[in-house]
Every structure is written in structure tokens, then in C-alpha cells.
Amino acid sequence: MAGVAFACGAAFFVSSQGAARQHAADERARALIEQTRLAELARRQAAAARELEAARAAEAQAARELAEARAAQERRAGPPQAIEWAGTLDGSTLPGLRAGERCALRGTFFSQDGVSKLSALSLRCGVTEVFRRDYDPPQGASGLRAGGVAGSAARVYMFSFEDHDAAARGASTILISTKRHELRIAGAGFEPATTSVFLRDVSEPTEGPALGRPSQRREPAFAGFVERSVRVVRASGASPVHRGERCTMQVRPVWEYPESCRIALRCGMTWLYGAAETGYLTCGVRNGAAVSALDENMTSHGGDPRLRWEGSRVTVEDFSEEGGAWEVTVGW
Length: 332
Known about the structure:
Blueprint: H1 2-76, E1 81-92, E2 102-112, E3 115-125, E4 128-140, E5 144-149, E6 152-162, E7 173-177, E8 182-186, E9 194-199, E10 213-214, E11 226-237, E12 246-253, E13 261-267, E14 270-273, E15 280-286, E16 289-295, H2 299-302, E17 306-310, E18 313-320, E19 324-331
Parallel strand pairs: 5-10
Antiparallel strand pairs: 1-2, 1-9, 2-3, 3-4, 5-6, 6-7, 7-8, 8-9, 11-12, 11-19, 12-13, 13-14, 13-15, 15-16, 16-17, 17-18, 18-19
């Protein structure tokens, strides 16, 4: 029995040694797996760090290239120029603005590689800044047209522009056509504010390198821009205005067409002459100033009523199938 017990004890001892060796092997295997996992994790972390470093280096390089490109653009670009158009507020739904207030449309432009760019645009009426918009990147200003000033190196400009992307950005839509004397702003939202301005068709004279598309076909016949407050002294027939009404008459020299001058005559919101893109005719000039004008064609033949300007009186007459003949004389 003692032999049997010894044999059983020996077998148990051998079995325990085998279990211990197996446990040690399992521990070594687990340690090796963990070591391999940690090594793989460290490898991945190192690779991610290298990728992050490469991405940062690429971002820094892109920033340097962008800065160099902008610097090159600035070197190629001409100096910025501020151009201003005077106007009168026709009306606005914005609080604090009154019809008849003087307005100023101001644009900042520059020339880059021979192309005119618009970088900022603002409108002020009275003491109120109605809007200001900065454009980055600058917008192409293909609607900017330059003309000369008699006896001066300065230039005046016409400008047309529409902010096509404003609605998509939730911003006010701006539509400008100085040739049509129009500036309209339509706000975004459920109750959009609207503003309308009667603009002069050319800017204030400005010095500096020429911008925009040159469109001068002739030397201006005289210098200066005349704006005169006049009153209706006689109205007959199917006249669109009444005796005593106040009107505004603008006269400027023309450089973009063969005619010598352009006249805009408006009583309140009612156009008598020069609406839209019309108003071109021949002016008499004395001592460097326009003193008379004549347009012998009516709307049916020239797009404008007939006009005669002599001394301090301007007579406009026209005929329509609906209303018949009418005649209006304004004076100062």
C-alpha cells in the first residue's frame, strides 16, 4: 500500500509540474501577445504622429504659398481708389430714413492684372449708413466704365453691379445701374426692408490710374455737372405733373455717345425726360457751360419726349395714343 501511495504521490507531483509549466507557458504567451499589441499600438501612434507632422507641414506650406500668392497679387494690383456717386433717397422701409435725403454710394476699386475689382461697397443717406459690404475675395467690376473730364486729368465713372450671391447668403440683394439712375436694395427674411435711391449717372471726378472699361467716344464738350431745382410753371393736356410741382434737372457732358450732353428731368418720382437709358441730346455751350438744348423727336421716334431749353425755361412735350398730347414747362 505504501508503494501505491508513493506512486500516486509521484504522479500528482508530475501532474502539478506539468500544470505549472503550462501556466508559465500561457503567461509567456499572454505577455508576448500584450508586448506585440503594445508594440503595434506604439507603431501606429508613431505613424499617426508622423502623419500629423506631415499634415502640419503641408498646411504651413499651403499658408506660405497663399501668403506669397496674395503678396504677388498685391504687387500686381494698383492702389485702391474710392469712387463716389451722389444721389437722393426715393424711399425706404428702414426706420429713420426720409425720402429726399442726400445719399452717397461709395465703392472701393483697384486694378489687378488689367482687371478692375470691387473690394467694398457702402451707402450712406443723411447720417445713416444704410449698408456696408466688404468683398473677400474682391468681385470683378466689369460694369465700371470710365470717361474723361474736360480740361482735367480726372475721370468720372458709370457703374452697374448686382450682388448675385447675396440671397444665398441670407443678405440683402443690391442692384445698381448708375446709367439708369437706379440703386435698389431688397432685404432678406420674412419682412425684407427695401430702399430705393435716385443716383447721378456719373461719379464725382476722381484722380488716379484709369479703372474699368474705357468707353470714351468723344471729348466732353464742357466741364462740370449741373443739378438745378426747378418748378413746373405751365402744364397742359394730359400732363403727368401739375403746375407748381418741384422738379430736379440734371445736365452733364457726354463722353460715351456722339451727343454732347445728357439731361435728366424728374418731378418727384415722375420722369419728364431722361428715364432709363435715354436723355441724350445736343446742348448749346457758351463759355464752357451748357446753356441750351434741343431734342426735336418725340418718344415714338427717339425714346424721349421733345425738349427745348432756352434761358431759364425748359419745355417738354409728347403724345401718346392713350392720353393724347401734353406739354410741360419748368423754370427757375
